[in-house]
Design brief:
Oligomer: single chain
Distance between the termini: 22 Å
Number of domains: 1
CATH architecture: 2-Layer Sandwich
Radius of gyration: 18 Å
CATH topology: PSTPO5379-like fold
EC number: 4.2.1.-
Structural class: alpha+beta
CATH class: Alpha Beta
Pfam families: D-Glu_cyclase
InterPro entries: D-Glu_cyclase (IPR009906), Putative_hydro-lyase (IPR038021), UPF0317 (IPR016938)
Strand content: 15-25%
Number of strands: 11
Shape: globular
Protein name: Putative hydro-lyase HLH33_15175
Order of helices and strands: HEHEEEEHHEEHEEHEEH
Largest sheet: 7 strands, antiparallel
CATH superfamily: PSTPO5379-like domain
Enzyme class: lyase
Amino acid sequence: MVDSDSARLPYFNASPAEVRRLCRAGESGPVTAGMAAGYIQANIVMLPASLADAFHEFCLRNPKPCPLVGMSRPGDYRLSSLGADLDLRTDLPLYRVWRDGNMVAETGDIRDQWRDDLVTFALGCSFSFENALTACDVPMRHLQLGRGVPVYRTNIACTPVGPFAGPVVVSMRPFRSHDAIRAVQISSLIPLAHGAPIQIGFPEEIGIADIDSPDYGDPTEVADDELPVFWACGVTPQAVLAASKPEFAITHAPGAMLVTDMPIEGYEDLVASHRGRII
């Protein structure tokens, strides 16, 4: 399927396995936005097994920012439920290594950081619904400009569990009203990619004082005839790690996701029913 936006995205119709091979070879680029349409992309959090039960419960209690799509056994870097020929140590474009709540390194390969007690959590990502919006001809300016989506910390607190607590983080995309309605309708059908937005139109209500200064990603202009639309974001666990300070953790770098073999449920019907629709 080719349209004016997806034509700019060379790996939009690539298979997840192809994207993972590119990541493994260091050839994917730093972000996975616009890749492997129709499949779930995942934020990654790797923690020592001693913290796994608490973080699992944290995800279950905070399903909007942390929609759980997979969890490994301790030391298992394959996570075969999410993909054949998948290696969690090499198949993301970029990882972050954390010690005592501080990000101490970014690297494209964590084989030398791997520990046999690590449990990996895969959490759904908004890039999955972005691909659906692109397929349905809903324009997104940050993709058109080749920029990262703007991401902000909010004043909304996650439900704490054990040592894990911190703010909900959101991503923002501006839309004119008719496209905002379509974006809400489409994203609502993909709960594993954060589902519906959590705020529309009033950033100050969720503690965002300056929409032009995101905490992560790149600024995206909100035109006078547009509404800023905010979705819960999978960077939330990184804000939680900074607050809870576990002795060791590994995460994806913002924008650098694991592309899984898990299809978006009902994706073809979703696109067929929403593509070109006028509100």
